[in-house]
Amino acid sequence: MSADVLACGRCGRSLFENTNPLGGSGRCPGCGVFFRVEVFPALFHGRELPRTGEALMTETESSCFYHPDKRAATPCDCCGRFLCALCDIELDGRHLCAGCVSAERAKGRIERLENQRVLYDVIALDAALIPLALTPCFWWLLPLLSPVGACVALYVALRYRKAPGRIPPRRRWRTGLAVSLAVVQLIAWMAAVAALLDFLVAG
Amino acid sequence: MSEQQETYIRLPGRAQRHGGPSVLAAERYRLWLGSDHLLHVTGTRYRETYKRFYFRDIQALSLRKTRTGAVWSIVLGSLAAPLLAVALSVEIRAGEYFRGVGMVLFGAPGALCLLLLLFNMAFGPTCICHLRTAVHVEELPCLGRLRTAERVFDRLKVIIEEVQGRVQPEMTQRRPPEMVMLPGPKLAKPPPAVRHSTARAHEILLYLLFIDLIPTALARVFPDNQQLGSLQYMTFTGVLGCSIAAAVIQRSTDIPRSIKSIPWILIGYAVARTLIGVGQSFTIFVQMVGQGKAPFEALPRHIESFEASPLFLGLTIIGVLLHVTLGSVGVVLLRDFRRRSRRSSPVSMEAPPGGGGNL
Fold this sequence. Notes:
Chain A is α+β, with helices and mostly antiparallel strands. Chain A has helices spanning 98-106, 120-134, 142-159, 173-202; strands at residues 23-27, 34-39, 74-75, 82-83, 89-91, 94-96, 116-118. Chain A contains 4 helices and 7 strands, in the order ββββββαβααα.
């Protein structure tokens, strides 16, 4: 009986002492707290034994590129090297060797292996917006922060325009808005400087 | 190496946890539903980290209701009510000189607390969720509200069962031996052992409740007697101190919940009374200054006015009723608890040979 499979995270007592151990909801018999547990068949599967690859039986058999004493099972779909069952990495229906997986991951071509992304569109937007947002309190910083922020926003937006955005996709209006704000700020500052110079020359 | 763009559907629920002093360091959590996996997104404003849980690997989903939401409701409610009452009171009594002060000082924070309370109540009770795979257990902070979590669980259950099938009763028989319980965050350290208590602190507290009635009654009869006022203050402080001590001592003991709730009710009453008292005193002070009295002149007089006010009388009556009710019920419950304890473990309850009780 699998009465001890799932226990209360608060008091540690088994949740299914007297009830159906296949999941469900109720109150913990120990502390009375409400719980719900959904159990799936994977919980009851044993752990798979690791693949080791078959040993070569005769000299004429093709061997693995990385393990010469193991029998080749499949070629790498990327580099064509022969791989044994141990070296074969199946990814999205393709068979790859560890080297190719590593190289593809470094180039950011396998989205499923990416676990981190920098949000350049948000950085650009903040660089363009923060100086403007600070203006009501720190107006005296505006002449310094605004041109710098606009330049940073333009640089980030253009330099990383092809960088992949976040993995759950979203619209790319942030980059457009950042560029627009930055350009408007730069034009405004250039016009202000030109007017000041005109005034000084005329004076 | 062209790859098909994965489409994701956003699941309800989001959470934010502060990772440092800066707002930018706050971590945000969201769940997205992919074609064959669940994407758990953790990120600050400028960087996101992803964890994928493939439907074929998910072993269990669990949620446990927590008291966080209820505690927040109590805290916000006990802040909002006195603050709004004081704001209203100040606005009604203040003269031209202090017009608007009550609304700014007390009304705005009170309204904010009320708004947060309404939001908290609208979102419903809180919970903690975990997702279990063969190699680890992941907390899902974005499913922090029970209603949202249940909705997401219902949706995920259907999808995961499409991939893995349903659990059959015979599967539970061939469970591998390494399967253990779903750990919760508190299981990292073993749960504290429940120890036996004679509830001596509660007994003293209950006696103090009755003792406190005497100076309270005498202070009403002789309102000008300073010694009685001091004595009443001392017994009130004693009740509060004893309540705090009992609330600390009763943790992880076998004292019934009904008895355990007595110190907390008294602490709540003391806090509410103090807040109302401070607010009312401030109102009277503002009113006196508004009437043209100098602050130094108004300060000693406003205490007398507060003690003569109907609110003070109401608070005193509520306090007396609370003391009598809690004291009587508490004594009965305590006797019942001790009788049951003696029956269940007569040896442990015996006094040691040298005398003295079993604390």
